[in-house]
């Protein structure tokens, strides 16, 4: 369990995080979302004691990270994948960490295998691609088999196969009862992975809730309907109170708001109008994110915090 309470961090005149409070529960994947510069990395750094807060607390299982002996056994973190000594091999890097944290050497092979780097174990990290560095960072986080895991933008640099793998890994870690906290500035990366979301903008909390609850905040969700009889269906759905727009180029695609897919199907069936496609809008999560964070995007506003 991660608990952040009234957390504030100022760097000179910049307030990176302000009065931030939220909880991250075990057994779930929690996405930590916000536009660039929202304060995500700062919060994660405060959580693992790399920086000291100006005010408030950040605790892991009730204790500040600094108070946890043999840190890697309690919390695993991937922060900056580039921040690793490039002259060492992957195995030497992990072995040194295992030794300093009192972990058995067998964990090194286990995590190298887990992240798909076993074949590259004896290569120097300096020659690794960004994706390989991300995998090594994830191996480092997993080394101590910790109950709490933090990942800062872990998907950066991964290829599509890597993205699928990392999603599966997060889900599995959560299913094992661990607390999995993953930052991203893209909702699309989180919508298929996270159970819960913590959304921040300009260092302040915007939302902390389940993905389902978050999605319900967005602009009314829409339903896309493909039909060979768009004019007739538009009239019927409009009469039911829906807003209907026609999508070019063929004109057979309608975007309906204000009426659910079930009712649209019933209306079409009653009037013997054929439907070739009926899809509830999945863009609503992205829309909710954009809407909620629109006022807090750092670049382009020029407002002081
Ligand atoms: N060491 C520092 N010194 C001064 N300002 C900093 C420092 N670290 C972060 N900031 C500022 O604090 C704010 C939050 O930055 P942070 O890196 O935490 O955001 P982020 O949400 O992780 O962004 P991104 O998605 O771009 O990584 C930014 O305005 C940033 O410029």
Helix content: 25-40%
Radius of gyration from the alpha-carbon trace, in angstroms? 23 Å
Strand % is 25-35%
List low-pLDDT spans: 300-305
CATH topology of the largest domain: Rossmann fold
Q: How many helices?
A: 10
The number of distinct β-strands equals 13
**CATH homologous superfamily descriptor of the largest domain:** P-loop containing nucleotide triphosphate hydrolases
SS-based class: alpha/beta
Number of discrete domains: 2
Q: How are strands sequenced across the largest beta sheet?
A: 5-6-7-3-8-9
Keywords: ATP-binding, Nucleotide-binding, Transport
Domain ABC transporter: 2-227
Organism: Streptomyces camponoticapitis
GO molecular function, one term: ATP binding
Give short descriptive properties of this protein.
10 helices; Alpha-Beta Plaits; alpha/beta; Rossmann fold; binds adenosine-5'-triphosphate; 32% helix; 305 residues; six-stranded mixed sheet; four-stranded antiparallel sheet; 26% strand
